[in-house]
Amino acid sequence: MIRISSQQIFSGGINRLQDLNSSLNQTQEQISTGKRVNRPSDDPVAAARILKLDQELSRIETYQRNAGLAENRLQQEESTLASSVDVIQRVRELTVQAGNGSLSANDRKSISSEIKERLGQLANIANTRDASGEYIFSGFQGNTAAFAKDDSGSWVYQGDEGQRVLEIDDGVTVPISDHGKGIFSNIAAAVFAEGDPANAAEARIDGIRVTDNGDLATVSPDDITLTVDTATATITAINSRTGDPLPDSPVNYVSGEPFEIAGVQATITDAAAGDEFTIRAGEKQSVFATFENLIDGLDTIDKGSPAGQAAYDDLIAASLQNLDNAQESVVQKQTELGGRLNAVESTRSFLEDSSVYSEEIRSELQDVDYAEAISNLSFQSFVLQAAQQSFAQVSRLSLFDRL
Where do the Flagellin N-terminal domain residues begin and end (predicted)? Predict the structure, then answer.
């Protein structure tokens, strides 16, 4: 026969009531918070997985913010470059207009005045700032204006060649900036020529025009040195850097008549024996310098002489080529930006899918099933009430009840 003391009865009853009350409180907490797991002790395995999912969602959220920032920066740069293309295109239209031989000096000055305005507009575009106030084309020198006037009044690049990148996923980075030197300054200049200072005073070279880019590429970026031999009526051409004669050298020389060498057509007039000229084939020129040279030429070149007319024609031809090169530089960067934006969009879509998937798994592990929880709460309340009534009756029993 097992004897149960009154203390055991009371202790067992109270412990049972406490367990039931704890379960009831846990269910109430689940309903009020909407979470099945509120602390690790509720479900240690699920709690560990939920913690990892929280970390994963935090990582995804950080990358989503980075992707959003990258997209905004790239879109701003893309819009800015589109504005610069509009300016360059307008100046090109003005340059074509300036090439009209019927224009008066006042007409040319009017065109020059508008190009000056466009020059200031392009400078403002190149010095665009982002939302944080940093210049977007200054490389790592975000607090320094990308372009400013030097002591001579010419616009020059002031930033560095740094390129900022942002990580938008594990191991995935995207450049979010481009330095203005590469876009607006390091632009291939049109081929031009100049005479040696020791040449005869009346000797000149003009009519420079590229006729075969393939032939020119065999020499560029090296320059071409031309030497006139009036005795044999020939022009000898050598590579200025190596000193080697060009394959199609020498060519016939007739004063004032065009000749062609290495894919470049030119005209030499009134040269004396031994006069030298240099064709520059590998120069770089900023779009700002192109505008400035065009403005200066429109304002100062006198077309009243054959030499002046030739210099003016060369200015227009070179300016058109330089403007086309500048526009191509910007368009190439726009194409590159389009590729980066596509990569950012693709990554953002992937991150969004990963976030939804992770949230669904976390919800299955953490969120409470309200129908089940309410049913459990009702049942637990009933069991607790029954246990309380049972304990109350048992606690009143005494041996004296049997006497």
Answer: 15-140
User: Which comes out higher in pLDDT, residue 121 or 14?
Assistant: 121
Q: Which pair of structure tokens corresponds to residue 159?
A: 């930033």
Given 3-state DSSP classes, what are the helix, strand and coil percentages for the chain, each rounded to the nearest 5?
A: 55, 15, 30
Q: Domain count for the chain, please give it.
A: 2
Q: Tell me how far apart the alpha carbons of residues 310 and 288 are, in angstroms, rounded to a whole number.
A: 23
Could you give the angle at the alpha carbon of 104 between the alpha carbons of 102 and 106, nearest 5°?
150
Which segments of 240-332 are extended strands (E)? Answer: 251-252, 258-261, 264-269, 276-280
> Which structural domain range is residue 231 located in?
192-283
Residue 293 has pLDDT above 70, yes or no: yes
CA distance 171 to 159: 28
Q: Coil, strand, or helix at residue 54?
A: helix
List C-alpha distances in Å: 200 to 230, 269, 305.
13, 10, 18
Mean pLDDT of the chain, nearest integer: 83
Q: Is 145 helix (H, G, I), strand (E, B) or coil?
A: coil
Three-state DSSP class for residue 201: coil
Domain assignment present for residue 17? The answer is no
Q: Are residues 223 and 352 in the same domain?
A: no
**Which residue do the tokens 């065109």 mark?**
111
Cα distances (angstroms) measured from residue 225 to each of 203, 208, 234, 314, 326: 15, 14, 14, 19, 27
Assess whether pLDDT exceeds 50 at residue 400: no
Give domain status of residue 355, yes or no. Answer: yes
**3-state class (DSSP) for residue 303:** coil
Question: Is pLDDT above 50 for 233?
Answer: yes
Question: For the chain, how far is it from start to end, CA to CA, in angstroms?
Answer: 21
Lowest mean pLDDT among 229-243, 254-268, 354-368: 354-368
Residues 157-183 as b or e (16 or more Cβ within 10 Å = b): bbbeeeebebebbeebebebbbbbbbb
Note the pLDDT of residue 219: 83
Residue 274: C-alpha distances to residues 199, 200, 380 (Å): 8, 10, 113
Bridge pairing between strands 224-229 and 192-195: unpaired
Instruction: Give strand ranges (E) for 164-289.
Output: 165-169, 172-175, 192-195, 204-210, 224-229, 234-239, 251-252, 258-261, 264-269, 276-280
Distance CA 176, CA 70 (A): 6
